[in-house]
Automatic annotation (TrEMBL):
Catalytic activity, EC: 2.7.13.3
Alphabetical keyword list: Kinase, Membrane, Phosphoprotein, Transferase, Transmembrane, Transmembrane helix, Two-component regulatory system
GO MF annotation: an example: phosphorelay sensor kinase activity
GO cellular component, as recorded: plasma membrane
PANTHER family: SENSOR HISTIDINE KINASE TRCS, SENSOR HISTIDINE KINASE YKOH
Claim: Endoplasmic reticulum is one of the keywords in the record: no
Superkingdom of the organism of origin: Bacteria
Protein name, as recorded: histidine kinase
Ranges where the HAMP domain occurs: 202-255
Length: 487
């Protein structure tokens, strides 16, 4: 299985990318700076070594206090005998090795000796003899011993050879301090860069948040929302313009569809009522128990079914348009349930019914529409039950809400059907439901009515072999105010 490492957050990608680029630049800059600083220090040290070698004093070369401790001197004659050696001269460095043909120092050969009258001998032990001209200076190079790295310079006169070795340990310590400063400063700078990039990307994405907020607020009553472009960045003007145009088209299309469905349902009511009346009149004139009477009876049932569909479609169109008229009053849900439970005993005498209903469960609702929701839930629980099944009704008051749960034994519902139960005209397995009365609008209409009351209707997670729906409405304390219609 392929492992996807793609980061889904755009802001996080911007912050990480900025930190990566800044980190690469800082690391490259730090590495180059360290090399340049090190080279500068070594070049300055080489210049100091050459300057002291060419001074040709009768005393040891003088360096600053820092270099004085790490400087070693060695003076040898033409025969390689040591005339002077400082106490800190490394034991594994000697003139033979340093000035061998294989050495990097490339020591200059001794010039011809001076005439005896020009020779001055200073053979006092541990004293640095002067170097008479002519003198030849070798190239300064690096030599590593067992413990340290030395920078070595050599000057050669006719009778002596002066070798200066300076340890690079002090420079290494200074470079170590610089590297430690970089190692601490770079992470801090990267964190600051990431925070700044996160803030800047969030500021840059502010127009996207406006679009998201507007889209989240798009409902039936919010299709008229638009995003102003007066203060929008140039880069987002086209995006917001396209979004506003889309909202205009969506609002216009929705209004047309809602108006069509509402007008169609309203126009069908009158012809269906006339047709039903004519069929009932013809049914009364037909001979009892005749084939015509049976046909007319079937036609009346179908007309009533069509009338029911038209009424539901009209309610749905009003709900879609946000124009469902609610005549809200104080309604006792407990009393409505008590009346409907008596009907269950008539409709399904073999069904085992359990109830757990608290008393005085008042809600502010349209009584007829609320009764329609509860009737639809109970009717579905009866129709889709199993032989010798059971039905449980639970209604309680909790957290200033009234919860009505209708649970029944049933066949298992597939996950695909659960996701589509509230779709209009969806009835699940058609072959299984052919003999079950219904058109697939009850649950959809019930949820729209519940939401019009600022409540909700949802399918609960249950055990296998159970189905449960929960209606949630706001609890209301009964008042003596005269009810007024609300929309």
């Amino acid at each position: 299985m392929e492992f996807n490492l793609k980061i889904r957050s755009f802001r996080l990608r911007i912050a990480l990318l900025s930190a990566s680029l800044a980190g690469s630049a800082l690391i490259g800059f730090g590495f180059a700076s360290c090399l340049l600083i090190y080279k500068t220090k070594v070049d300055a040290l080489d210049a100091e070594i050459k300057s002291q070698l060419l001074a040709n004093n009768t005393r040891p070369p003088r360096f600053d206090n820092t270099l004085q401790k790490s400087t070693a001197l060695l003076v040898v004659d033409r025969d390689g005998e040591t005339l002077y050696q400082s106490n800190n001269w490394p034991s594994d460095l000697n003139s033979t090795i340093l000035c061998s043909p294989q050495s990097e120092l490339n020591c200059q050969p001794f010039p011809p000796p001076l005439p005896p009258r020009q020779q001055r001998q200073f053979l006092i032990p541990n004293q640095l003899p002067p170097l008479p001209p002519p003198m030849k200076l070798s190239q300064v190079s690096t030599k590593q011993t067992y413990q340290e790295v030395w920078r070595i310079g050599v000057i050669t006169s006719p009778h002596h050879r002066l070798i200066i070795a300076i340890s690079l340990s002090e420079i290494d310590r200074e470079m170590s301090v610089i590297r430690n400063v970089f190692s601490i400063a770079v992470p801090i700078v990267l964190i600051l860069v990431a925070i700044a990039a996160w803030w800047l990307s969030g500021t840059a994405l502010q127009p996207i948040r406006k679009v998201t907020t507007t889209i989240r607020g798009v409902t039936v009553k919010g299709l008229s929302q638009r995003i102003p472009m007066g203060t929008t960045d140039v880069e987002f003007i086209e995006l917001i313009g396209v979004f506003n145009q889309m909202m205009e088209r969506l609002e216009r299309s929705f209004q047309q569809a809602s108006r069509f469905s509402g007008d169609a349902a309203h126009e069908l009511k009158t012809p269906l009522a006339i047709l039903q009346g004519e069929l009932e009149l013809a049914l009364q004139k037909a001979e009892p128990a005749s084939q015509l009477q049976q046909s007319l009876s079937n036609l009346i049932n179908e007309v009533r079914r069509l009338s029911s569909i038209v009424r539901k479609l009209l309610l749905l169109s009003l709900a879609d348009a946000g124009q469902m008229q609610l005549y809200q009053i104080d309604v006792d849900v407990s009393k409505i349930l008590a009346d409907l439970i008596e009907d269950i005993e008539i409709l399904a005498p073999d069904l085992q019914v359990e109830t757990n209903i608290a008393a005085d469960l008042w809600v502010k609702a349209d009584k007829d529409l609320l009764t329609q929701i509860i009737q639809n839930l109970i009717s579905n629980a009866i129709k889709y039950n199993v032989p010798s099944g059971w039905l449980r009704i639970d209604c309680q008051h909790k957290n200033n809400l009234v919860y009505l749960t209708v649970t029944n034994s049933s066949q298992d519902i597939s996950p695909q059907d659960k996701e589509r139960l509230f779709e209009r005209f969806y009835r699940g397995d058609l072959s299984h439901n052919r003999q079950i009365e219904g058109i697939g609008l009850g649950l959809s209409l019930s949820r729209e009515i519940a939401r019009a009351h600022n409540g909700d209707l949802q399918l609960d997670d249950t055990f296998i072999g159970e189905t449960a729906f929960t209606l949630k409405l706001g609890f209301s304390t009964p008042s003596t105010l005269t009810p007024t219609p609300l929309s």
